Amino acid sequence: MRKISALALAAPAVALVIAACGGSSSSSTTSSAAPATSATTSTATSTSTATSATSTASGGAAAAALTLAANPSGQLKYDKSTLTAKAGKVTIAVTNTAPLPHNVTIQQGTGATGTVLGATPTFQGGTKTLTLTLKPGTYTFYCSVPGHRAAGMHGTLTVS
Ligand SMILES: [Cu+2]
Question: Distance between CA atoms of 98 and 79, rounded to whole angstroms?
Fold first, then answer.
């Protein structure tokens, strides 16, 4: 009985402290923080929507998507020059925030030419996902927009 009454006394004391803070100048800080919180919440919602769409597109494969991004400042290169994956279903999520359109094209082997196995559309802004079923081997990823591969927009994908 004594413990319960002690708690009952403590709770109103805490409430009084909170009320005192809320009534002071700190109320302006509280109101400015509220919009930021709701903005974060809406971003998180759209991200989770995109994630579920991606997993549906990749057919529920357990393997995590590889990520590749075009240089955001417009240089003709990707953020990686090598990618590695396990044989089977390989998903590459390609982001292009550069001020010009790019794509990612996957070619068999590392020669100047080779069989093209798949490609994202040429796009600007956002992320496109490319899923291919690949055997162990070496592949080249490059941008097929004229001049981009020659300028350095390519790399090697190793599948084992
Ligand atoms: Cu390009």
Answer: 12
pLDDT digit string, tens, across residues 50-83: 333 334 344 444 567 999 999 999 999 999 999 9
Predicted TM-score (pTM) of the model is 0.62
Contacts of 102 (CB under 8 A, 6+ apart): 70, 94, 96, 122, 123, 124, 143, 145, 148, 153
Give 140 Cα–ligand 1 centroid separation in angstroms. 14
Dihedral angle computed from the Cα positions of residues 38, 53, 126 and 81, in that order, rounded to the nearest 10 degrees: 120
Q: 141 CA distance to ligand 1 centroid (A)?
A: 11
- pLDDT over 90 percentage in the chain: 58
Give the three-state DSSP class for 80: coil
How many angstroms does the Cα of residue 103 sit away from the middle of ligand 1?
A: 6
